[in-house]
Design a protein that fits this description.
CATH superfamily: NADH Oxidase
CATH architecture: 3-Layer(aba) Sandwich
Structural class: alpha+beta
CATH topology: NADH Oxidase
Shape: globular
Number of domains: 1
Radius of gyration: 17 Å
Largest sheet: 4 strands, antiparallel
Strand order of the largest sheet: 1-2-4-3
Helix content: 40-55%
Order of helices and strands: HHEHHEHEHEH
Number of strands: 4
C-alpha cells in the first residue's frame, strides 16, 4: 500500500490517457475519498457529475462550442478540452455554496485533493482543470444545476510518466516567528 508521503510526492498532473475503461467501482472509491475532506461547518459542499462515453462526448462538444464563442484569450482551454475528449472519465466538480460563504471553495478544493490522491494511490492519473470556468455559465446551464462550477477532473489510466517538477523548499515558502 502506498504511504501518504508517496501519494503526495508521487502524484502528477496527467494529460494523456490510455483508452482503457475505468471501472465504476474505482470511480466510486475515488469519489468516496473526496467526501472525507474537511468542510466548512461540515457542510460537505461538494457534488460530482461523472461523465463517460456519450455523456462525456456531448459535454466536451458543448464546451468546445462555447469556447469558440468567446472573444478573449482562453489560455490553455482548447488543450484542456482535447484532454477531456481523450480521457475516459471527466468528473465535473460543483460547490453547493450551502452557507453562502466565499470560503466554501476551500472545502470543495480539499475534496478535489483527496480525489486526486486516491486516484494516484489506485494507479490512475488525473488532471485538475480550472479552464472550464471560462464557460461556467454555459456549463451550469447545460447540466441545469443550482450550484457553482468549481473544476473538472480528467481521470484515466496514464499514458505518460512525467518527471517531478522542481519545488520550492520549506525555507523558501515558510516564515517562522517566535
Amino acid at each position: 500500500m502506498m504511504s501518504i508521503d508517496e501519494a503526495i510526492k508521487g502524484r502528477r498532473s496527467i494529460r494523456t490517457y490510455k483508452k482503457t475503461e475505468v471501472k465504476e467501482d474505482f470511480i466510486r472509491d475515488i469519489v468516496e475519498a473526496a467526501t472525507f475532506a474537511p468542510s466548512a461547518k461540515n457542510g460537505q459542499q461538494w457534488r460530482f457529475t461523472v461523465l463517460t462515453g456519450e455523456s462525456k462526448d456531448k459535454f466536451t462538444d458543448m464546451y468546445r462550442s462555447e469556447l469558440d464563442k468567446l472573444t478573449f484569450d482562453v489560455g490553455s482551454s482548447y488543450g484542456s478540452c482535447t484532454m477531456m475528449e481523450r480521457a475516459p472519465v471527466v468528473i465535473v466538480v460543483w460547490n453547493t455554496n450551502k452557507l453562502g460563504w466565499t470560503t466554501e471553495v476551500h472545502s470543495v478544493s480539499a475534496a478535489i485533493q483527496n480525489l486526486l490522491l486516491k486516484a494516484h494511490a489506485l494507479g490512475l492519473g488525473t488532471c485538475w482543470i480550472g479552464d472550464v470556468l471560462y464557460t461556467s455559465e454555459a456549463i451550469v446551464d447545460y447540466f441545469k444545476k443550482p450550484w457553482k462550477l468549481l473544476a473538472a477532473i480528467t481521470l484515466g489510466w496514464s499514458d505518460a510518466n512525467p518527471k517531478p517538477k522542481p519545488r520550492l523548499s520549506v525555507n523558501d515558502v515558510t516564515e517562522f516567528l517566535n
